[in-house]
Specification:
The protein is 48% helix and 14% strand. It is of the alpha/beta class and 265 residues long.
């Protein structure tokens, strides 16, 4: 654990998966944490675990697709933890399969609302205060899938690419105000989101290991956190491939299978 005075962090999508493990990791690194998600019972269990490790924590039930609800969640978190947030992590995410021949508009809208607008709503709620204080850090959990359009994951890839572009531009814009911005690009991590996949996931990593990498990167204030390294190198190589080669190489992905029972987080 670091020795600096305890700070305050807020993280969305904190009921399970990466959100839960990052909340625990931040607690070990000297943060008091506000956990935000829809499922209150899971949040309260996570808060109890944080409190057992000596972390002050608050559970705040909230739908991140509601801008006013997110603002209220930030206000309630600040009241519960006794001050403004030094760190905000937009982690809430949804990943559903999409295919051009069987396109479901409702699924596409859900992913864009949660992944993109959920991040923007948290940004809108915390950044004005950070700018005024000339301090703070905003982080968004995007994905390595945002680097190119992945067949059968078109909307998910698009939502993560949108997050990456927004965070990259915001990083440059906010630097003069003393506010840092970090883009987090995981590969495959063992969570409820990946549990539905029936195909072999390369370089699969535990959520605990992912949280350790994220916590270390946030402590260092790095611009981009990507893992695992082999997957990061692979997707960066894929960005350089000519379209004709990329199309042939990724065509099998359009036929990959998922478990329909486990589609939603």
């Amino acid at each position: 654990m670091t020795n600096h005075p305890r700070k305050r962090a807020i993280i969305t999508g904190a009921s399970s998966g990466i959100g839960r493990t990052v909340a625990l990791e931040l607690g070990r690194r000297g943060y008091d944490v506000a956990l935000v998600a829809r499922r209150r019972e899971l949040l309260e269990a996570n808060v109890a675990e944080l409190e057992r490790q000596g972390t002050r924590a608050a559970a705040i039930a909230c739908d991140v697709t509601d801008a006013e609800a997110v603002k209220d969640a930030v206000r309630r978190g600040e009241e519960a933890l006794g001050g403004s947030f030094d760190l905000a992590v937009a982690n809430a995410g949804v990943g559903l399969p999409t295919h051009g021949a069987n396109f479901k508009l409702a699924d596409a809208e859900l992913m864009l609302r949660v992944n993109v607008f959920g991040m923007i709503y948290l940004f809108d709620a915390v950044i004005p205060g950070m700018v005024e204080r000339r301090s703070g850090r905003f982080a968004g959990v995007a994905s390595l899938a945002g680097y190119r359009g992945i067949p059968a994951s078109s909307i998910y890839s698009a939502s993560k690419a949108a997050m990456q572009s927004f965070l990259e531009a915001s990083r440059v814009e906010l630097a003069p105000y003393g506010v840092g911005v970090t883009t987090i690009n995981p590969g495959f991590v063992v969570t409820a989101m990946t549990e539905k996949n029936k195909f072999k996931m390369p370089f699969l990593m535990t959520a605990e290991r992912a949280a350790t990498i994220i916590g270390r990167g946030l402590d260092r204030g790095v611009r981009v956190i990507e893992f695992p390294l082999p997957m990061s190198l692979l997707v960066r190589l894929m960005r350089l491939l000519p379209n004709a080669i990329y199309d042939r190489a990724t065509a099998p992905f359009a036929r990959r299978k998922v478990d329909p029972v486990k589609l939603r987080r």
